[in-house]
Design brief:
It is a single chain. This protein has a single domain, classed as Up-down Bundle (Methane Monooxygenase Hydroxylase, Chain G, domain 1), CATH 1.20.58. The protein has five helices and two strands. It has a two-stranded antiparallel sheet. Strand 1 and strand 2 form a beta hairpin. The longest helix has 42 residues.
Length: 144
């Protein structure tokens, strides 16, 4: 069963990687509707990965409990160790892909925020008991 759960977890990770790469391509082309359309499937795949990861943990704990005198490295066979290594590699790849995607999201967000500030000017006024600066949006004065 452990091998089965490992294979399913690896498939889930690969699906997340593929979807995130599609998201990267689409954000570059400003196809935001496609990004939002994939959110639900990404959440479902992530939930299934978490389920498989918990099942993997349970299987390994069960194996360790059945053989308390055997160390973990000796408890797993070579194919199980290879699959665990593959899963670790996929997790690293997903982390790297997500980091790249996050950089693009931040860049796009900064662009839209700066564009919005240019279109809808803000006036700073001192107000409040502490004399803190508050920003007030003036919708009547729009620079076009």
């Amino acid at each position: 069963m452990l091998v089965h759960y490992l294979n399913l977890a690896i498939e889930s990770l690969q699906s997340l990687i593929d979807i995130t790469k599609s998201d990267i391509d689409d954000i570059k082309l400003a196809k935001h509707e496609k990004l939002f359309a994939r959110l639900k499937s990404k959440e479902e795949i992530l939930a299934s990965f978490e389920k498989y990861k918990n099942l993997i943990d349970s299987e390994i704990v069960s194996m360790a409990n059945k053989n308390p005198s055997v160390e973990l490295k000796d408890l797993l066979n070579d194919s199980q160790k290879d699959l665990l290594d593959d899963m670790r590699t996929k997790l690293t790849e997903l982390k790297s892909t997500n980091r790249h995607y996050a950089k693009l999201v931040i860049a796009v967000s900064s662009f839209y925020n700066s564009l919005l500030e240019q279109i809808v000017p803000k006036e700073e006024q001192k107000a409040g008991y502490d004399g803190l600066m508050q920003r007030r949006v003036n919708l009547l004065e729009i620079k076009a």
